[in-house]
Amino acid sequence: MEIRASTVLPARREPIELHTGDGLTLVGELALPADRPPVATLVCLHPLPTHGGMMDSHLYRKAANRLPALAGLAVLRFNTRGTSSARGTSEGDFGGGDDERFDVAAALEYADFHDLPRAWLLGWSFGTELVLKWGRDPLVTGAVLLSPPLHRAGDADLDAWAAFGRPLVALVPEFDDYLRPQEARARFARVPQAEVMGVEGAKHLWVGEPYVRIVLNEIVRLVNPEAYPLPTGVLDS
Predict the structure, then answer these.
(1) Which residues of the chain have pLDDT under 70?
(2) pTM for this model (two decimals)
């Protein structure tokens, strides 16, 4: 069976709640491999909620639908404060990227408390700003950035990540609306351990199955290289 945009592979999926240090409850979902412990964990930080971003934004939904089965990964998705999806609405109001520091901390605390291994932050657009500003936590193994705008996060945050020393990989669309590969390489040059990968033909929202496959493959290459490259099909059950 060919893996398509709508494919949902077997996993243990459970609704979760995160509790922030400032007293809010956030809604989310944890997807785990169906028949084995996860080898690593993706903590997903979604695009801008004021422009439709949420835990079900398509790349994250597809990661949760595929990567537990194909790569043995746990995928933790959640709505940041004030954000709604089919799972529900998280308490609180959009904090402009500042109050969301409590949300990032709550997700990492959840992963730690539930013994989820090797937490990697996966940020997309606005989510990359949260990674760079608030993701420098000892629990974090590394981070993957998708379409980083480098708007709220600036050079001081990049310098802090350089000092943090953990791996940082940015996937930058050729036709991004905010930051394109050449400029991204110049901006991220101040982070010695950063890798910037330009993706030919891609746009900010990564629409289209070929781009989804590139993104998921690069995530797996970093987080669980033994499962790379991902198959494009699975056996019919």
Answers:
(1) 237
(2) 0.98
